Structures are given as C-alpha cells and as structure tokens.
C-alpha cells in the first residue's frame, strides 16, 4: 500500500461499517452512523496534531494546558460529504468550511463541477476534504485540484469506502495528499459503483431513492 494511504480499521469502525453496507439500514440510522464513523476517523487522524501550551487557571491553581495550533478547514464534496462535515464540526466546531459541488456524470463517469466556495487563507489550514465514496477517483481528484488552486497545501482526504482504482488515481495525480479510509474494496461494477461498497451514498444519506 502507498505510504500515504492509511486504513483505519479499528474494531468499532468495522462494526459500524457493516451497518453502512447493509441495505436494510434506514436513512436515519445510515446518516447517524456516517457521522459517528467520521468522528472516530478524525479522532485517529488528529493523533499527531500540533499543540501549544496555554496558561490557564483552574478553580484551584494555575495550570498549563494544551490547545491545537492548526486552523482546520473541512471541505465536503456535495452532496454526500455534507453529513461527514457535520460529524467533524461536532468535534472541531471552530473549523472553517468550504463547499465543492461535483457530481459524476452517470454515462461517462466524469466529474462535473457546479459549485466552489472555499475559505480564505487555505495555505495556513490543515485541510480535510471529505466524501464517503472514492470510486474512479475523478470527483476527488477534481476537488483536490480546486483546493490547490485556492492555495491549499496541507491536504488530507477522508473517505469511508475507497476502491483500488480511485486510490491509485489520487496517489498518482496528487502524491502529496494523505488518504484516510476505513475500507479499500477492489472492484467497480460496470456503472462505476464500488463492489461490495454500500450503494449510492448520496441517495442513502438523503433518502432520494
Ligand atoms: C458520489 C460520491 C463521490 C463520487 C465518487 O457522488 O459521493 O463524490 O460519486 O465517484 P468517483 O470517485 O467515480 O468520482 P455523486 O456523483 O453520486 O453525487 P451526489 O453526492 O450529488 O449524489
Ligand atoms: N458513488 C457512490 O455513491 N457509490 C459508489 O459506489 C460509487 C460512486
């Protein structure tokens, strides 16, 4: 596996992934589990985040605490990334948020961009691009292109389920980007869906099918 690809396979995450894959899981449960799993991933991703000392006073005495130095920017790819964004904001409510609208043309599987609004000063931020699915990799590569054009440098990609072709595409086009995922499935079907995957993430999150 490429040195920039990190498989987060904690037992609690594997347990929750089974409910995401199961087609009997309803929209409400699916959305809640996506939020929970994203938060668990970020907990692991931020294990080595930079901290600085902060002098404070407890009700008893002076003390030195630690706080994060990095500015965090979360950038969901619309629309399925929105629920992952919610999970991250519950943990890091000070994060700035950018939005990138991309859908995949169902015939060509090529990414189509329709919206992009990014925070300023992206070059100073620890950036998390979030999308539940990394299939052919077209959408994510396009999103990373836009974030780099906006000045982003320290970019991490957080996807729930990835497929090998998508991982290979991202590592070859953007070798500086770290990819965090909870599963790497080997195949795509003839419609570009990940096998076994979990189906259409947007439809399952928003109840649109
Ligand atoms: C899904 C998913 C990714 C993309 C992955 O979005 O959320 O953005 O497909 O496919 P790729 O790696 O082959 O580009 P979709 O196009 O279904 O849009 P939606 O979130 O608006 O439903
Ligand atoms: N988009 C999805 O939502 N699911 C897949 O399996 C592939 C692309």
What does the model show?
With 209 residues, the protein is of the alpha/beta class. It has one domain: Rossmann fold. The chain has six helices and 13 strands. Strands 1, 4, 5, 6, 7, 8, 9, 10 and 11 form a nine-stranded mixed β-sheet that branches. β9 (133-134), α4 and β10 (154-163) form a beta-alpha-beta unit. The longest helix has 19 residues, at 27-45. It is globular. The two termini are 35 Å apart. The model has no long low-confidence stretch (mean pLDDT 97). The structure holds 1-O-pyrophosphono-5-O-phosphono-alpha-D-ribofuranose (PRP) and uracil.
Summarize the structure.
This protein has 209 residues and is α/β, with parallel strands linked by helices. The protein has six helices and 13 strands. It is globular and about 65 Å long.
List the helices and strands and how they pair.
Layout: E1 5-7, H1 11-21, H2 27-45, E2 51-57, E3 62-68, E4 71-78, H3 81-91, E5 96-97, E6 99-104, E7 111-117, E8 125-130, E9 133-134, H4 138-149, E10 154-163, H5 164-173, E11 178-185, E12 187-188, E13 194-195, H6 201-206
Parallel strand pairs: 1-11, 4-5, 4-6, 4-8, 8-10, 9-10, 10-11
Antiparallel strand pairs: 2-3, 6-7, 12-13
Uracil binds at residues 133, 135, 192-194, 197, 200-202.
């Amino acid at each position: 596996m490429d040195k920039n690809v990190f498989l987060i396979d904690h037992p609690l995450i594997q347990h929750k992934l089974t409910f995401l894959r199961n087609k009997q899981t309803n929209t409400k449960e699916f959305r809640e589990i996506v939020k929970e799993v994203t938060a668990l991933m970020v907990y692991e991703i931020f294990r080595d985040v930079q901290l600085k000392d902060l002098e404070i006073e407890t009700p008893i005495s002076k003390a030195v605490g630690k706080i994060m130095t990095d500015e965090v920017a979360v950038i969901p790819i619309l629309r399925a990334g929105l629920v992952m964004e919610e999970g991250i904001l519950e943990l890091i409510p000070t994060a700035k948020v950018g939005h990138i609208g991309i859908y995949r043309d169902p015939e060509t599987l090529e990414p189509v961009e329709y919206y992009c609004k990014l925070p300023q000063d992206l070059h100073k931020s620890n950036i998390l691009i979030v999308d539940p699915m990394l299939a052919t990799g077209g959408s994510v590569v396009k999103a990373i292109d836009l974030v780099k054009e906006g000045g982003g440098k320290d970019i991490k990609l957080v996807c729930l389920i990835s497929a090998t072709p998508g991982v290979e595409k991202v590592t070859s086009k953007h070798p500086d980007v770290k990819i965090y995922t909870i599963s790497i499935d080997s195949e795509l079907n003839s419609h570009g869906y990940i096998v076994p995957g979990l189906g259409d993430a947007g439809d399952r999150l928003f109840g649109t099918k």
